[in-house]
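User: Okay, second chain of the day. Same drill as before: sequence in, structure tokens out.
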Amino acid sequence: MLVLQAMHGLSLAQTEYLVADRLSWMRFCGLGPGDAVPDANTLWDFREALIAAGALEALFTRLDAAITAAGYLPMAGQIVDATLVAAPRQRNTEAEKARIKAGEKAAAIWPDKPAKARQKDTDARWTVKYSKAKPAADGKPQIDIAIPVFGYKSHISIDRRHGVIRRGKTTDAAAHDGARLREGLIDPNNTASDVWADTAYRSAENERYLAGIGRVSRIHRRKPRGRSMPRHHARANAARSAVRAYVEHPFAHQKGIMGLVIRTIGLARASAAVTLANMAYNMKRWCWLDRRVVPA
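Assistant: Same drill. Structure tokens below.
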């Protein structure tokens, strides 16, 4: 039921109702028409138990092993990227924001208002998402767009051949993409050594890390400050972009069709929501891969 919730971007109450209402969803959950459907509170408690036991990461690994055993090995290199996942915005004073950034918990910031403290997410962060403006048809310069976002960030690594999410990590929205590369995003089981990523991952530390584990960096090169991009670097970046674009497919599917947002409070629950969304996407991707195969 939690997978169905993640797959369709539902609340727990909506999930309870739709499982009870639809025979196809009952069959997916192994329930019969006369069986009792777990209610929203039971689903909440079950998810909390999974989080406390650290079981979701183990389930994600087991699903990946099943996909691999079905013949869809991680092949042809891997692509790493991150996307912002929105959470309900907080309305805090400047003093409260400073205490949150200092690492204080909600119970310490609002000790006399426990109900309010329970509704405050002190793990999520603000960041700014920049969108590069395209040149105007009349040649006039366009203004780049900066969009403030509050929430978390989903970091993933997919294999180039099958587009399956092989590794994932969740952080607050302000976490730097490049530093996460060295925190378990590289899949050691990929049969090829190439690693693609955008310029946020370009650093001397990451280059040394990839070389040290036997991987070949295909990370985009940055434009030199105050100078134009060398033509051979521009051509190399264009070739890498053609490959790296595939990592946008999972993000677009999760945020568009699956409606991925964070409805809960705290990093642990946000990580659970993103992990379940990654599992749901991989299940759908597995079905798509099976349909694509033509019997001999």
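The longest strand covers residues 145-159.

User: Thanks, on to the next one.
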